[in-house]
Amino acid sequence: MLISQKIERERKFKLALRAGLPILALLGLIIYSIFQEENIILNTLAIVLFVAMSFITVYFIFFIIELSASEKMLDDVTNIFKEQSFIKVAKKNKIDVMALIEISNFDTIEEFYNTFEIENMLKILVKKLNISLNQDNFKFTIMGRRNHNGFLIATKGDDKEKLLDAIKIFIDKNKKINTIDVEYNFAITDCAKLYDKTILYLKDLIKIQKSTSKNDNLENDIKIEDLEKITLQALEHKNLLFTYKPLMKLKDNNINIYEVFVKLKANNSEDLLPRFYLPILNSLGLSREYDLTIAKHIISLLEKVNDDISIAFNLSPFSLRDAGFQKKLLKVIKSSKINPSRIIIQLYEKKTHHDLSGYLKILETLRDEGVRICIDNFGSSNASMDYLRHFKFDMIQFDRDYTQNIYDDKTSSILASMIEMSKKNSIITIAKWVDKREQKELLEAFDIDYIQGFEVHKPLYEDEFLKNNGMENDI
């Protein structure tokens, strides 16, 4: 039996006691009032009292029953906690580790299977997950359902690594349930108090995981409240660590473009990667402030380096679609002393924005100022091709899977055709994560324009970048 079912049984038993005890008390009061005299006389007052108390008793019982139904804690399909009930139980038991598992292909499953098959699959999934956790002898574990395709797991008194291993084993063993192929994403973190925020953070971690080509399941060693504090302090004091990845132009082996990677500097822990701090910034509504800070830093840095150097950096599409952010960004660009073409904004979206024409007008405004626009991780989603059909990008940076799997005939032929298509549209092409000479040679044969990776050079810290490209080097 699931812990959630045990807790629900206890709750119903307590509700039954709450309903039963008043009944017994009322019956006792009625009996006392009627039989307190030796000569029993059922006068009018006694009859009225009996009827009134009976009505109150019946009304109270129905009220408790209705309240019990409206406050049902368990999900109808899986018999695990609903999300709000999960949070209440987590708070009550002071759980310290939480994970979120999502069925990443649930939309496809809904398209090809009926309701009965899907519900049966979900029941079996939860049952197997519960068995897997019980086999690992967790001290206290609860499960909850989040939306239609998410499952929350929380433990108390067990370390995160133990839960992480259990989830990985479960996923590895349950990629097919009945006849249904199931694909998963999951994230895991420590937590202490902010359980509802922790759930949102896990959701954002998975969202970032989906938006990258690398299929890593995300885990974080810092508690959500500490992570929030570190992120806020780093943004307030501009404690950002910039590294610069050189892009080599294969035609002449010249390096004149650098791609930026940003981490947050944390005083008492390791530097934070974007996949961990970006969800915090998003949840606090600070992503636009962060993006503007990055843009200001890059533009000021371009004023200090040689005029032939350009820098590419990622900006969130959500920031670019914000009118206030657009105004501030354009003001920074116009007030700078650099040629705007040295600014390369990288964009990536998994799904095409619903107001495509409006979004493209924003990109066109930036293009009118001379800023170059690069579509990042091209080929990893359908949105990439949609945007390319409707907007003339300056650059395309292919998803790293094409580089890593370039030895595969099918992958290499697709990449070659995409490079050819880009050439016909006068779009500069870039391959990233080029770490081996063989990859470089194949890409040269495909006539790609730029490559980035350890085969070119390791990433440079900002002082190294300035030393290599500062204007004083030309004197």
From TrEMBL:
Keyword Transmembrane annotated: yes
Chain ranges of the EAL domain: 224-473
UniProt cross-references to CDD domains, sorted A to Z: EAL (cd01948)
Leader sequence residues: none
UniProt-listed InterPro entries: Cyclic-di-GMP_PDE-like, EAL_dom, EAL_sf
MF GO annotations: cyclic-guanylate-specific phosphodiesterase activity
Protein name: Putative diguanylate cyclase/phosphodiesterase
Native organism: Sulfurovum sp. enrichment culture clone C5
